Amino acid sequence: MIIGPGVLGFVHESDVLHALAELGVLILLFEVGLESDVGELLRAGLQAALVALVGVAVPFAVGYGVMHWLGHPALLAVFVGATFTATSVGITARVLADLGRLQDAAAKVVLGAAVVDDILGLIILAVVTGVAQTGSVSLTAASLLAGKAILFLIVAILVGTRLAPALIRWVGRMQARGTLIVYSVIFAVALAALADLIGLATIIGAFAAGLILATTARREHIEARITPVADLLVPVFFVTVGMKVQPATLNPFAEGAPFGIAILLTGVAVASKLAAGLAVYQPGVRRWPVAVGMVPRGEVGLIFAGAGLSAGVMAEDLYSALIVVVMLTTFAAPPWLKALYRE
Q: Model-level pTM?
């Protein structure tokens, strides 16, 4: 399935492997949508929304500024800034659950903010991938793409939440095995295709499908049945991400290796997300747990980096450096959170 070494010394995936990876990332974002509660988002209120806005705006601006300062093109700087906006709610939620702190005031703010962060991040991804197709950064084009992505999500959720219960009831009357998961995946792929048809990233459609089905009475059943599918396909996406990393370029002793830029960008990525803690104003909500809970980039950061490489915006060495950034921020946050709560 693997074609073989490329001219730059790393392996390329075949068309079949690429297709499986694309399906894997759709299932991954569908799962993220299923785990996101629109009602919880509305209940999170202004505090969580403000944390999310700061947690997106500051990393994007700082990431863009650092890359521009280093002399990189504006489009590349936009992609790096967009990668820094991601937050992996799954990692933070798992750590908080292990600590028995999911009902903590700071935890509620972080989880609410992470849902907003996911939505804003996907809108940003839709914009930057659309801008990449034109090859230049235009404020007008970016605004139009952002408006299109927001409108798509709003219409999909409003219409979908009205139609989904009837669809689920209809599927529930079928006696054939596996109908619930089959129609759920078809629904996710259909919305992904619709998003692609109007010029948006397909993962926005899959995420919207997850958000819609999360409002139905069969949410838990869908989550349980999608897990084996995700266990099969999502790792393919992560494998292809790793295949494109050039380990030799991360040798700190090699001439011209991007190891230094990886460490610099990691520091920038962590510091810029910690700024989200400054948006905490409610009494009784600890700022540090909120700030650290926003640090891990996880799977969403990998999607952003992969989009930049696929669009031909960034070179393989910078892509490898961004993968290191995602890994380090993901590994650093859990022990840091545990240390804060032990205090």
A: 0.76
